[in-house]
Amino acid sequence: MELIIKELKDIVGSQYVSAEPEELFFYSRDQGTMPPVEPDAVVMPKTTKEVSKIMLLANKSKTPVIPMGGGLVLSGLSRALKGGIILDLKRMNQIISVNPHSRYAILEGGASQGMLQSYLKKNFPQLKHSMPDAPPIATLAGNICIHGSGHLSVLGGFHSDMLNGMEVVLPTGEIIRTGSCSVSKDWISKAPLPDLSGLFLGWSGTTGIVTKLAIKLFPNYRFNDLLIFVCEDADIMPDVISRLTSTQIAEDMTPWMTPKPYWAKGFLHINISYGAHTKKELIFKRNLLQSSVRFYIDKKEAGFLPLPPPQKKRFLKIPSPDLVRFADIRKGGGFEYVGAIMAIEHFAKAYHAGLEIAEKYDVSYSLGARIIGAGHAMMFFFAYAFNRADKEDIKRAQKALESTNKAALDIGGIPWKAEEPAQKQIISKMDPETFDFIKRIRMMLDPNDIMNPGNWEK
Amino acid sequence: MEHKEILHRCFRCGYCKLPGNYVDINCPAYLSFRFETYSPGGRMWLLKAWLDDEIQVSDRFARIMFSCATCGNCVEHCAFPEFRDKILLAFNAGKEAILDTGKVPPGVRDYLTRMQNYGNPYGKSQQKRANWAENLNIDAYSDQEYLFYAGDVGSYDPRGQEIAKSVAELLQKLGVSIGILKQDETSDGNDVNSMGETELFDELAQKNIKIFKEKGVKKIITLSPHSFNAFKNDYISLNENTESFFQVFHYSQILAFCKDNLKNIQGSIQQTVTVHDPCYLGRHNNDYFSIRMVLSAIPGIKIAEMDRNQKNALCCGGGGGNFFTNILSESEERSARVRVLEAVQTGSSILVTSCPLCTIMLEDAAKSENLENTIVVKELSELIMN
């Protein structure tokens, strides 16, 4: 490893390579419950060329490489399960350009959500991108590669659906492009070419390193508002979601069910965000959304929560620091969640499973979902807080997460950005031919099995 | 270690790395070194690991801890209101515990040794403390309304001496009655404290408190925001009488009081200026107003704010003793250089600040970036006096 570290220093500069105990400790773990695994080194490249050189070196020496963005995945995907080099991409954080007409931005692989939001606000206030609920230091590439979702997901689907194209360094060091940018100077879409982007989306960093990408931008409204639908019956939620999405007005819809604050316990809420260019338009949209669920309101089975302006302002803040505060609910700095991609009609089953598991393992919980597209799917999350200083508490959360992964799969959902043990659970349910095909693709792209090995293996 | 009870509560969500508007990285140490370990979350997790015996103190561990510029960006933007006020206190306690192990970065060791042996970080004679005022008509403090406190940088650093002189002259021109302690002035100890050397800080503070009492000091004007911070926030807890017996002002606050007279000293200045907020005035003491009030009182001046201003200001990297230890200067991507580039983007011809440390850091950065012909770094009084 010593020789490899020396060569890494020659590539990126000695300041940006470490095999010191401090970095090895820190980069061996994330905020979730997965046990630490130490890498051999951490390296921080600045350019695509440097990434390519690193991959050539790693491929020649058969050294594992683990790409890392914001390091906020919570499910331990950027741990070096078989040792090797962690490639921290956050020095590659430039916003390269914005095309306001075709509405896309080209970014480096380590660019953060917060920086893009800030850049657009200043330079292109008429545009916005879909922010996930992750903290603002989370990277766009990381979130897209895990099929993340966010504040425009009702409008635009998964964040991977909002991807126009990528520059990727392959495990063997070649630099390729996917989408229109492979042919033209315009990074406008994945179509009409063979969709190579799919080779790098949802693979947990096992197929390549994304060094540039283009994402879709959307109109930013001058007036923004939020409605909170509330009811007590989980069985009506699929129909409610269907009615609300049929208006094609909401930008984001996030059901949530938590025992705290006290007034929320036992109720099911849906935050519905929407915007408009004028106040008149906003009122019109609000009326349409409210009318769509009038059926339940007239039956006195549901209603809209009255929201004082300061509270509404907090709900409209994107991203909201309130969400990470869940980590401190047990005064212990930890939480992890299972986010399962599933059909809307499984809402009630998922809700009840979450409640049962939380009760069984005595964990602090928060349940909720993000609606994807016009009710085409949802990411249903089961979040459990734990006290990092209490090993028993961590174990409890781990067990709850394991049970939840199983429950989600039994319901028909698929755990998103699954931990390594959950990946095995998914594989056990996966069509065997499909899994073999995945292995063959990986072998073709990564003949020496150096890309984040240990993931997506039986 | 004090405040260890908060360490495991850090979720390392990273809000602390950014300003409130997320423009770019705003933690000077993380900006310089870019490993997660150098971020506030990194320090929290590493300190916890050390206390849990999962890692040992090493030169790198110490360097990571002492690279904190104590700018307070993490405190300001941490997502956890229940413990964020204790973050810097925990870091300082961590540094104190590291000092006890003897594993201290050379720059820190040299700084503290000079402070211990000479009472100042320059290793110069106490007799030379008032050399900066040699050609000025400032008397030793007796019954003047204010004690003017120059501090270490104002007393010994050649550029700091020019700034001390300029501020003192301006105050006198405005009719502010000031005296100085001359050889009786002792280091304020702010940076000693931020390096975790609490015993030496106590000693320095007690010396100052004693002399302030002996001389009957009731009001102090400090040159440096660092001194202002120590006197205002830390000396009170050390004073036997729990109530403060003196009032402390930063000179920009006095200039703001005298703003109506500024136009008699300086006619119009037809320039666009941008403001760099010193951390120990801004985030630590919530004064973003005085310097802007002073600038607004000067005819012709137009203020163009940087994207990161006031609570979101990017630190120059000189706090936490880094002005003297140069730990952050080991990197090309240091915050002072980023800051002057940000200032240039505003289209301003002048970058103005009201801290001698910030002025020196930013002037050096402008030279390193070859921006001396593009933007001039000015200390506030020099802008007015010129």
General description of the model:
The complex is a heterodimer of chains A (458) and B (386). Helices cover 33% and strands 23% of the residues of chain A. Chain A is α+β, with helices and mostly antiparallel strands. Chain A folds into four domains: 2-88, Uridine Diphospho-n-acetylenolpyruvylglucosamine Reductase, domain 2 (2-Layer Sandwich); 95-219, Uridine Diphospho-n-acetylenolpyruvylglucosamine Reductase, domain 3, CATH 3.30.465; 223-318, Alpha-Beta Plaits (2-Layer Sandwich), CATH 3.30.70; 323-418, Vanillyl-alcohol Oxidase, Chain A, domain 3 (3-Layer(aba) Sandwich), CATH 3.40.462.10. In chain A, strands 15-12-14-13-17-18-16-19 form an eight-stranded antiparallel β-sheet, sandwiched between helices. With 386 residues, chain B is α/β, with parallel strands linked by helices. Chain B has three domains: 4-104, no CATH class; 124-255, Rossmann fold (3-Layer(aba) Sandwich), CATH 3.40.50; 259-385, Rossmann fold (3-Layer(aba) Sandwich), CATH 3.40.50. Chain B contains 18 helices and eight strands. Chain B has a four-stranded parallel β-sheet with strand order 2-1-3-4. A four-stranded parallel β-sheet of chain B has the order 6-5-7-8, sandwiched between helices. In chain B, helix 2 (40-51) packs across helix 5 and helix 12 (251-257) packs across helix 14. Chain B is globular. The model of chain B has no long low-confidence stretch (mean pLDDT 95). The interface between A and B is large, with 43 and 37 residues.
In short:
The complex is a heterodimer of chains A (458) and B (386). With 458 residues, chain A is α+β, with helices and mostly antiparallel strands. In chain A, α1 runs antiparallel to α3 and α12 packs antiparallel against α13.
